[in-house]
Amino acid sequence: MPEGPSIVILKEKISYLKHKIVLEASGYADVDMDAIHHKKIMNFKSWGKHFFICFNDFTIRIHFGLFGSYQLHKPKKVNPKIALHFNDDDVYFYVCTVRRIDQPLDEVYDWEADVMGDQWNPSKALQKVKSLGPKKICDVLLDQNIFAGVGNIIKNEVLYRSRVHPESIIEKIPEEKLKKIIKECRVYSFDFFRWKKDNELSKHFEVYEQKELKSNGEEVVRKETGATKRISYFIEKAQKLYV
């Protein structure tokens, strides 16, 4: 599943189409394609893992889920969920969820929850996290209403950087540690963004999908954790369990 930094990269890549007219929209998504024909794209936005194509009076939201992808200029050999055709270019989106939003996005999304956004509010995130006292940190970090854009890669790497065990209980984690985790969510997201653009993201994984630490060969534990049973990677001795 693409995490927030990958969606910001898409927003950058596709920005050259801003203010262009869509000659035709096609695909099998359950939206009115005719309503997109001959419409000018006013902007591209992102919120966490959500990508927005903004027109004057509505927005098309794309969520890539587990297997979604996109292609600029030339199509793949499979049918796109939605494709936008321009006078001299095309863009294709595959295996994704497509939804039309008629309300202003400010009425639908809390921009202060977007970890990579200009309005990201770490103090608000801390308040929300602390209100979920009995929950495990591995679940809370994947809550998009608090950490929009954080996925399993960021979760694991942030907890390793913060030296906190993924099964730690929120109300048992010292506040300074919670602040460290929240800060690292943004810091690591921008590291992820830079490494992904340079095609070297996986080279920098410390624990995610690793069997041992590169620095000293210490074993990386792989375990299903939390209510959602998502896979966590961690160092048993180095990451403190707060329970």
From TrEMBL:
Gene3D superfamilies: 1.10.8.50, MutM-like, N-terminal (3.20.190.10). GO terms for molecular function: damaged DNA binding; DNA-(apurinic or apyrimidinic site) endonuclease activity; lyase activity; oxidized purine nucleobase lesion DNA N-glycosylase activity; zinc ion binding. Keywords: DNA damage, DNA repair, DNA-binding, Endonuclease, Glycosidase, Hydrolase, Lyase, Multifunctional enzyme, Nuclease. It catalyses: Hydrolysis of DNA containing ring-opened 7-methylguanine residues, releasing 2,6-diamino-4-hydroxy-5-(N-methyl)formamidopyrimidine. The keyword Mitochondrion does not apply. Residues 2-93 form the Formamidopyrimidine-DNA glycosylase catalytic domain. SUPFAM superfamilies: N-terminal domain of MutM-like DNA repair proteins (SSF81624), S13-like H2TH domain (SSF46946). The keyword Manganese does not apply. Transmembrane segments: none annotated. GO terms for biological process: base-excision repair. Belongs to the FPG family. PANTHER family: FORMAMIDOPYRIMIDINE-DNA GLYCOSYLASE. This is Endonuclease. It comes from Pedobacter frigoris.
